[in-house]
Design brief:
Layout: H1 3-23, H2 39-43, H3 50-67, H4 76-95, H5 102-113, H6 117-121, H7 124-160
């Protein structure tokens, strides 16, 4: 394995571990397992590819579900796939320079669209009941990312020897 692949794999594992730390910080709610597990994955788009950041986000969700007792059972696999997609889209938009639009898209995808399958799988009442806490957790995660991302981006630009 070459050095770059090993470094990317190590960084992905470290981001997933930080997601695990965020997974134990829960957002109080009645029907969902919302936590601060996605902020590290969103932040990792600064230094990881969108695919690796998405994988870290998926692992973060699974750990968050584990710390909550897997309330939705195997349905958490659907949520993990959705988390991968949301972080991947956010990462692609970040890499393409869509710095304004990545925020509302991530908020809409993670806070409103991601719980939508459960409207049909479980019930409309479950969707509407969980929507507020999932939306609030998404807002909190994205605010954390918005505050930390410019600092992290400067560190990685300086470390790479490039100047903006």
């Amino acid at each position: 394995m070459d050095r770059q692949k090993l470094m990317n794999l190590s960084l992905t594992a470290m981001v997933a571990a930080i997601c695990a730390v965020g997974a134990v910080i829960k957002i109080p709610s009645f029907v969902s397992t919302a936590a601060l597990d996605s902020a590290p994955a969103f932040l990792s788009v600064v230094f990881l590819s969108p695919v690796l950041a998405g994988i870290a986000g998926s692992i973060g969700h699974i750990i968050s579900a584990l710390t909550s007792g897997f309330q939705l059972g195997p349905l958490h696999i659907i949520i993990a796939v959705e988390m991968f997609i949301v972080v991947w889209v956010f990462g692609m938009m970040h890499k393409r320079g869509l710095h304004f639009w990545k925020w509302p898209v991530a908020l809409l995808l993670n806070g409103v669209v991601s719980p939508l399958p459960f409207y049909f799988i479980i019930s409309p009442a479950f969707y509407w009941g969980s929507l507020a806490s999932i939306f609030m957790a998404t807002v909190i995660n994205l605010v954390i990312v918005a505050v930390v991302m410019p600092i992290l981006a400067k560190v990685f630009v300086r470390k790479a020897g490039r100047a903006h």
